[in-house]
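Researcher: Structure prediction, please.
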Amino acid sequence: MEAGFSPDIVVTDGYNAYEQGLRVLDRRTEHVRAHFEVKLVHYDEEVIIISSNRIERYHSEIVLKVRCMRGIKNLWRGNGFF
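Model: Predicted structure follows.
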């Protein structure tokens, strides 16, 4: 792994392919599926609130620009777009 450590908790949506990727991580890594919902998880003798809403919101903002960029074929047009 490039980060050099395994995270304690990984939050994903309900996509099943994430299971294969998480098998690479340490067995102590907890997988929480929280697609547009809030989950309560016990961590270090505390209860923390976990949600994937922040990353889902970020994706919805950039997905439109990514679609537009498919048509940008050169640097000059790309610079003009941004």
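Model: DSSP finds three helices and four strands in the chain.
Researcher: Thanks, that helps.
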